[in-house]
Amino acid sequence: MPPRLNLFNARTAVPVFRQTSINVSRPSIATTINSNRSTRHGLKTGLSSSTPMQKRYNSSASGGDNSERPKAPTEDPLPHVSEEAAEISKIMDKKCDGTPASPELEQGTPISEILQRDKEAQKHMPKVMQDQIKSSTGTRSFSTSTRRSQAELHGQGKSFDEQTAAVMASMISQVNQQAEEFHDGIKFDPVETLPKTENFRTRYDSLLEQFTKLLMTDGKLSRAQKDMAFILDHLRTAPPPQPNPKRPLLPGPPAPQLPLNPVLYLTLIVDSVAPLIKIRQQKGIAGGGASVQIPVPLALRQRRRTAIKWIIDGSDKRRDSKFAQRVANELVAVAEGRSGVWDKREQQHKLGIAGRSNLGMVGGRR
Amino acid sequence: MVSSFCWGCLTRLRPTPRAVLPPTVAAPRAAAFHTSTVRYALPTKKKNSLDGPPKYRQAKSARMKKKKPVERARPPPVGERKALRKRIVLSNPNALEVEGMQDFTSETMVDARLRGSILGLPVPMLTQLRAVEAFKPKQGWSIFRRPGTVVRRETLELGRLIDSISNEGQDKGRSVKKIVTGVRGSGKTVHLLQAMAMAFTKQWVVFTVPEPQDLVIAHTGYAPLSDETPNLYVQNEATATLLSRTVVANEQVLKTLHVSREHAALKSSVKAGMTLEELAKLGIQDPAIAWTVFQALWAELTATSAASGFDKNFKPRPPMLVTVDGLAHWMKNSEYRSVEFEPIHAHDLVFVRHFLGLLKPGTGKPALPNGGLLLYSTSASNNPTIYSFEVALKQIAARQAGLNASAPEFPQADPYSGADKRVIDAFDSSKPTVAKEGMLELQTLGGLTRDEARGFMEYFARSGLLREKINDEWVGEKWSLAGGGVIGELEKLGRRLRVTD
């Protein structure tokens, strides 16, 4: 067993010893790894726990040292060339492997930790250690620097920590409560996160904005907004829709309540007739220049866009003199299941189901 | 793969005679280092396009498919679009009924406790209010269950004024003249509407000019009044419309009143026992005599006593409310032209001249001898800029503040700005000589107070149109956003839909 040295004290007090302690305190890469190898051997035997401990302390101490004091030029003698090459190749190999180089594997694990994890091993551990665990009174006849294992092995210390933590937590909560009572330095309640529509750039509902912009022709947004206001007012004042049981709207509030929230009403209408897929005509899969219908899933915005396009197209066939009136009437027709938009959606879905078999061809191609 | 030939062999190769080489037609043209295949390639086939031979004198660019316009069998009938535009909807059956909403009555209109709440317009009165065109198409009546207005400070003052004029007391029979101004959306038109509603509850006679602009844009017929006064012009159709408005709205009152004097111009048609309703209907039936009938009706309504021989059915005349909404259009040249093709000033139209003349203090007896209220409002959205009118309004305010017209601080028109003297004179009313006549006042409507704004927003919430927690903080925020409680802006904020998700 190597002698226990308090390296900090030794170095600061007796600078003459520095040269002698070099090999221990600041090992080169090669020596560190060499020693680790030996440690792993030691683990297998499972006898000595002090060696890895000491290595660990050494390495950490050396790390601290590096930053602390300037390096002397002759302090760090290089290892032999062949030795270094061997070590470097080892390091490189490891990196190439991609195995995570855990510090535990490199530096070794204290036997006590392994024993703590492994219940089976605990039964077969040396008698000295078993005795040590059994007679855990908190006082020891010997001194040791393994503070870490001590804290983990002794359950009493743990409970003590928990107690202090609980006391601290109660104190903190008490202080917080007092602060809340006095409102010291807090004049107003904490600010809640603003809803999205409070920002003036996104002040309209997303569907509303999309619909308005699709109503727009020749870039006349203001006119489209007027039309949208008309449509919303129409939805607000028109009699509530009589839902068709065959073509129900998406689940939402009951129909008589819909006009009170026209934006929700509009959203329900559009989302109810929005198709889930589009049909892509793809050439060159089947060969011979024939195109094959491939169903492609749509995102929410795309689905809504398709539905709005259909609704506006459907409204073109109406006879009312005002564009906004036509669209509004078409929307109510959709809500009541009378509109041709529903047929379009069903047709699209039917094609999509028929084209499901073609999806395999796409995958095979890739 | 390395070729088995060596360089020397390759260079010694002589070009092979043509006949030996097979014509390799199938070889691609892309191999540029072969010349032989290109030489022996078959001539490229002409592409047989479906359209036939190439078109040389036509555009070859890609043509966008144009959507065919849908055949709408008939254009909308004449007046349908305008009717749709001018349609006034006063009820939304989908909106919730507001619990405990009170109506305009003679009690509630003076009740200061109701300040900040919404008073509904009584349903029987709606036909009267529609007849005098108190509602405007762009006002947001259509989203509520039934029309109602906010009781603000000015409303209560108006209610007390109307109450005091009609009730027995010191102020009975007083006549008050006001010009209502204010920023856009501050509730000037609705203030007039409230005055009309109060006047109807107090059984007054109401005359209104809802659209002064219509009288000066040359959309109705005009003619010189008579040979003696070739500079004055009469608008018979417009006058007939005014008479019909008045008759429909004030039918109950006019039916109880009877003709009290002889009318020289209408000698043939006016009989002794005629009611005023019948008198007014003469003008509606025959627009040619509409202006004469209107003058006769006005003379009857301003009569304080009956002429001799007509005493039998005479009843004291009720007070009158006269409103004009959008005064500035009457302060410039009209679109009408005289015979010399000179523009006619709006003050030369007898209709306009009559209503502007009421602002002047009457000589001997007040302009409204039986008491009443003149409420003329300006408009802020449809408003021609007229410098002399602005100066005239400033002068009214200065006179109201007690400034003398000769004082140096008294606002005067810039002598080089070409101010219209007739406009400034029209409002230049000296101190009235008659006791019961008030001075011309200027009333400026501002924003609501925060409490009134809160009542207004709660009305939205209780109608189910607004989904917010109405607390002081939220109302204060909206009050500030609305430019200090301008009610038109508050209404927009109340209608604004916010779906938080």
From TrEMBL, chain A:
Signal peptide: none annotated. Residues 135-148 have a biased composition (Low complexity). The keyword Heme does not apply. Keywords: Mitochondrion, Ribonucleoprotein, Ribosomal protein. It comes from the Eukaryota. It is found in: Mitochondrion. GO terms for biological process: translation. Residues 46-65 have a biased composition (Polar residues). Its main location: mitochondrion. Residues 202-356 form the Small ribosomal subunit protein uS7 domain. GO terms for cellular component: mitochondrion; ribonucleoprotein complex; ribosome. Residues 66-80 have a biased composition (Basic and acidic residues). Residues 33-80, 127-158 are annotated as: Disordered. Component of the mitochondrial ribosome (mitoribosome), a dedicated translation machinery responsible for the synthesis of mitochondrial genome-encoded proteins, including at least some of the essential transmembrane subunits of the mitochondrial respiratory chain. The mitoribosomes are attached to the mitochondrial inner membrane and translation products are cotranslationally integrated into the membrane. Belongs to the universal ribosomal protein uS7 family. This is Small ribosomal subunit protein uS7m. It comes from Aspergillus flavus (strain ATCC 200026 / FGSC A1120 / IAM 13836 / NRRL 3357 / JCM 12722 / SRRC 167).
UniProtKB/TrEMBL annotation, chain B:
Residues 70-80 have a biased composition (Basic and acidic residues). Keywords: Mitochondrion, Ribonucleoprotein, Ribosomal protein, Transit peptide. Pfam families: DAP3. It is found in: Mitochondrion. Its main location: mitochondrion. GO terms for molecular function: structural constituent of ribosome. The keyword Coiled coil does not apply. GO terms for cellular component: mitochondrial small ribosomal subunit. Residues 57-69 have a biased composition (Basic residues). Residues 43-80 are annotated as: Disordered. The keyword Iron does not apply. Belongs to the mitochondrion-specific ribosomal protein mS29 family. This is Small ribosomal subunit protein mS29.
